[in-house]
């Protein structure tokens, strides 16, 4: 978890090329600031994130992992939200077994114009991770 | 693994370098494994820098390139093209977005922005280190397009494709073409009738050698994919010979004992089992509705054109692209919704438009002359509790125009519009002004306090707390209540499942990107247009139809196609076939095949869309997505973690 006294938590975001990437880009364009220790990896669809990638991020020292899901806007179909949700559930089960706080993994649907929502999510997740850094 | 990587860090004028210390970024990545050269540049996308990159790649035999600049949405393709011009495979290029996701996002924290940029560039270097040359799949593409739906969008798209020299099969489920437009009388803004518009288009369709029109036709199966869709189409006969004597026909209709609701008039009138919708719909040959026909034989006795020997047939076609223009249904109010089906003389907007068209001199409905008409807006649209959250956008203009038509065509009509805010956008605003000037009354409420429709004896009263007059309670006695119903997706959209076509949250067909790729779908080779994609008026439907026609033509015009090589890949050694991947795939791209000793999964390369939904469900981790492999993703995570 985040070090005591550290200003911002390290958050890895899995975002999607067609839906949440444009929102994150627009947050920058609008200069809606969020912690600079938020890093993004783009993938085609949020329902393609492997549990092993998420666990690897925790192993390498990330404080939190956030999946910026396509939600119902997913161009690959309606099942995306449900499938991404299942990945989260499965991964959180594994996190429990590995003694990693499940709340360090979050998911929210970020549509292609949801810049403000993305920034809010990052700020609240950062606050949560810093507040719970001793847990 | 790439060993000679070139990295270019862009100032973007000052958009990046005003907040990110680009020299520091360069120094931080110079020593990264595999980085052969690192440069900063004022504008990476500028011609001079592009030429320098080409020279660098050639002279130094670079086998990997990273540009750290703006969003890949703007220049990924630019720099891929640069690498190709230098003779390097374009998939050995990786883009790092240090403008939107570093300099601009963290313009309040320059050291933070610089550190973010460093990590993003390191992650891109980590990815390009593992990148391998990839080659697009080249496939043949049949120069022919199937247009599904013979409404205004499908007709216009078919003509456009045919004019470009492309053979088109135009498939209409109903026996008559023209769709909804054929049902409308005079149209805003051109004052043409729906019939006139459809007649123009039909005349063009039948004169065109490149168009094959199938009516009463339904796609029943589809195999194949972009460039090579193989479809089976079931064609139901009309049971009437093509050349038909009008006099005999009218007598045959007269003697038909069947009486069923007429969908053309939205069920406000009835028709016989033998019917035609001429003059509004084409082809003009009538049809026998065989589902409702009792085969009594009365029509056969009178009309020699009746031919019950005609048989259903199945036609097979092969096309390179499919253009979907399947249109919309009008929202059907629930029983009791604003009195619908419980109070006499409560009708929907489409029904009202037919009532206007069917009446002359006096506006009569159910034997009663109509003078006072109340219109209740947003029925089935902008729902707070229901599924239809969207605005149907066409209905404000449509109802105002219909109300004005009623006022002009019949005498002493009084129009009362119970609305939630008028949305006559663009040029349609003049219509609203004209309506006000003509004396129509507008009363408005919020969504949480809609008007109430009540029946007292033979009177219908509509009450509203009108927010335009400080929520004063107003009531109107009306002879007719028109529910201004919006557009909903087709109740029977089974054709979509044949093509695995994704739908959005509103259940209309989904485009790839609403603004940038508005007629393409993730199913390669399938385009969408018109109201099957979401509520649109006629102008907007035709705009999208022309766009979809051009896009579909681009898939078939060359006779061959390049497909992106970003697809799933099975590790044969690890796969033990459990079927989970096939179940997760929304496109049926995964099938079981026999390997040497065991059953394994196999990917159909031309069907796989590269979504990756199959990856996380594999219990033996036997699937990777090309360019997003475990190694590539984990190496990026390592670089970002620092």
Describe the structure in your own words.
Chain A has 135 residues and is an alpha/beta fold. Chain A has one domain (11-131): 3-Layer(aba) Sandwich (Rossmann fold), CATH 3.40.50.960. Chain A is 40% helix and 17% strand. Chain A has helices at residues 20-29, 51-59, 80-97, 115-131, and strands at 11-16, 38-43, 64-69, 105-109. Chain A has a four-stranded parallel β-sheet with strand order 2-1-3-4, with helices on both faces. In chain A, helix 1 packs across helix 4 (115-131) and helix 2 packs across helix 3 (80-97). The longest helix of chain A has 18 residues, at 80-97. Chain B folds into five domains: 5-134, Rossmann fold (3-Layer(aba) Sandwich); 145-178 and 187-224 and 319-327 and 501-560, FAD/NAD(P)-binding domain; 246-302, no CATH class; 329-488, FAD/NAD(P)-binding domain, CATH 3.50.50; 564-626, Alpha-Beta Plaits, CATH 3.30.70.3270. With 642 residues, chain B is α/β, with parallel strands linked by helices. In chain B, helix 6 (152-163) packs parallel to helix 7 (194-207) and helix 6 (152-163) runs parallel beside helix 14. The longest helix of chain B is centred in the first third of the chain and has 21 residues, at 110-130. Chains A and B meet through helix 1, strand 2, helix 2 and helix 3 of A and helix 4, helix 5 and helix 16 of B.
């Amino acid at each position: 978890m985040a070090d005591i006294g550290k200003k911002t938590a390290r958050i890895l975001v899995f975002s999607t090329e067609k839906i949440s990437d444009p929102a994150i880009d627009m947050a920058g364009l609008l200069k809606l600031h969020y912690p600079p220790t938020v890093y993004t990896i783009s993938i085609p669809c949020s329902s393609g994130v492997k549990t092993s990638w998420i666990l690897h991020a925790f192993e390498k020292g990330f404080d939190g992992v956030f999946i910026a899901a396509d939600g119902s806007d997913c161009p690959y179909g309606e099942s995306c939200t449900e499938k991404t949700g299942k990945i989260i559930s499965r991964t959180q089960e594994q996190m429990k077994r590995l003694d990693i706080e499940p709340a360090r993994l979050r998911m929210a649907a970020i549509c292609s114009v949801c810049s403000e929502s993305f920034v809010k999510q990052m700020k609240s997740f950062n606050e949560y991770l810093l507040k719970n850094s001793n847990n | 693994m790439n060993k000679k990587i070139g990295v270019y860090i862009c100032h973007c004028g000052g958009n990046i370098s005003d907040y990110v210390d680009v020299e520091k970024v360069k120094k931080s990545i110079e020593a990264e494994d595999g980085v052969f050269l690192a440069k900063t540049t004022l504008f990476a996308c500028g011609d001079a820098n592009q030429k320098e990159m080409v020279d660098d790649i050639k002279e130094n035999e670079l086998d990997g390139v990273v540009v750290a600049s703006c969003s890949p949405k703007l220049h990924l393709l630019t720099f891929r093209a640069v690498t190709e011009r230098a003779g390097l495979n374009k998939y050995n290029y990786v883009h790092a977005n240090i403008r939107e996701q570093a300099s601009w996002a963290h313009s309040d924290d320059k050291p933070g922005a610089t550190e973010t940029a460093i990590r993003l560039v390191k992650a891109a270097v980590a990815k390009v280190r593992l990148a391998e040359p990839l080659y697009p799949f080249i496939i043949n593409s049949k120069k022919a397009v199937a247009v599904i739906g013979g409404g205004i969008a499908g007709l216009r798209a078919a003509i456009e494709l045919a004019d470009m020299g492309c053979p088109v099969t135009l498939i209409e489920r109903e026996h008559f073409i023209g769709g909804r437009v054929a049902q409308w009388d005079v149209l805003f803004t051109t004052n043409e009738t729906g019939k006139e518009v459809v007649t123009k288009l039909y005349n063009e369709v039948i004169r065109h050698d490149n168009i094959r029109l199938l009516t009463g036709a339904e796609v029943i199966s589809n195999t194949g994919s972009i460039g090579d869709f193989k479809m089976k189409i079931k064609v139901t006969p009309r049971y009437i010979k093509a050349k038909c004597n009008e006099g005999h026909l009218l007598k045959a209709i007269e003697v038909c004992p069947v009486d069923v609701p007429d969908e053309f008039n939205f069920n406000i009138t009835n028709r016989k089992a033998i019917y035609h919708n001429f003059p509004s719909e084409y082809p003009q040959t009538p049809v026998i509705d065989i589902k409702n026909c009792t085969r009594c034989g009365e029509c056969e006795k009178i009309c020699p054109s009746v031919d019950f020997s005609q048989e259903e047939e199945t036609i097979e076609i092969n096309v390179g692209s499919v253009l979907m223009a399947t249109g919309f249904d009008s929202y059907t109010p629930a029983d009791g919704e604003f009195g619908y089906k419980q109070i006499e003389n409560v009708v929907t907007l489409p029904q009202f438009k037919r009532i206007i068209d069917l009446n002359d001199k006096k506006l009569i409905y159910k034997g009663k002359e109509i003078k006072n008409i109340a219109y209740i807006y947003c029925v089935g649209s902008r729902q707070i509790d229901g599924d239809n959250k969207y605005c149907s956008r066409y209905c404000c203009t449509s109802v105002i125009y219909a109300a004005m038509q009623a006022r002009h065509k019949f005498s002493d009509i009084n129009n009362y519009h119970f609305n939630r805010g008028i949305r006559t956008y663009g040029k349609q605003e003049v219509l609203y002004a004209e309506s006000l000037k003509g004396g129509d009354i507008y009363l408005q409420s919020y969504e949480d306090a809609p008007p109430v429709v009540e029946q007292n004896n033979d009177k219908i009263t509509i009450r509203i707390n009108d927010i335009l007059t400080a929520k004063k309670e107003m009531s109107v006695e009306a002879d007719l209540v028109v529910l201004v119903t919006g557009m909903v997706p087709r109740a029977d959209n089974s054709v979509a499942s044949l093509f695995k076509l994704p739908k959005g949250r509103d259940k209309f067909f989904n485009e790839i990107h609403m603004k940038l790729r508005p007629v393409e779908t993730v199913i390669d080779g399938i385009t969408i247009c018109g109201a099957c994609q979401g509520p649109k008026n006629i102008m907007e439907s035709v705009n999208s139809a022309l766009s979809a026609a051009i896009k579909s033509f681009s898939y078939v015009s060359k006779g061959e196609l390049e497909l992106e090589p970003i697809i799933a890949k099975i590790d044969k050694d690890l796969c033990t076939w459990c079927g989970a991947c096939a179940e997760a795939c929304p496109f049926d791209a995964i099938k079981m095949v026999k390997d040497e000793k065991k059953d394994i999964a196999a990917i159909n390369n031309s069907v796989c869309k590269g979504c990756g939904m199959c990856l996380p469900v594999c219990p033996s981790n036997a699937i990777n997505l090309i360019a997003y492999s475990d190694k590539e993703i984990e190496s990026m995570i390592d670089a970002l973690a620092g």
